Amino acid sequence: MATSRYRRPGRTIAVAATAAAVALTVTALTGCDAVGKALDCVQTADSIADSVTDLQQAVRNAADDPTKTDDALRAIENNLEKIGDKTDNTDVNKAVDDLDKAVGNVRTALKNGDDTPDLTPVTDAAGELTKVCTP
To answer: How many helices (H) and strands (E) does the chain have?
Structure first.
């Protein structure tokens, strides 16, 4: 009996279907990873927004409890670290850097005796971070 030089069509279809399934799985997993990172970014940006609100209240009430201002600044910095560790997005990293700089400026102003530092750069940078984190 002579051997056939032709492949069986069933085997070719099975190989093609398996390759397609693997490609779809890889694409889906990569997509899920991107969605997960975006959700982490949004959740952390939301936490930062809450911390900025706390900072605004703490600055208004600094005479009553000056430690709350430092606590609010530390909370923002901790959340910035979380975002910075989880993303490689250029826009997010820039927004994180801008917010970190604004927080640093508030710390410097407080150290220099300014009881009512300008928080506008902090709120603007937090708004930008929220914007770039939104999927």
So the answer is: 4, 0
Q: What is the rounded distance in angstroms from the CA atom of residue 79 to the CA atom of residue 73? A: 10
* Exposure on the CB side of residue 49, measured as CA atoms within 13 A: 12
Does pTM top 0.85 for this prediction? no
**83 closest CA partner among 43, 121, 55:** 43
83: nearest Cα among 32, 51, 50, 45: 45
Non-local CB neighbours of 41 within 8 Å, separated by 6+ positions: 83, 86, 87, 89, 92, 133
Question: CA separation (Å) from 17 to 21, 22, 23, 110?
Answer: 6, 9, 10, 64
Predicted confidence (pLDDT) per residue in 72-102, tens digit = 888 888 888 877 777 777 888 888 899 999 9
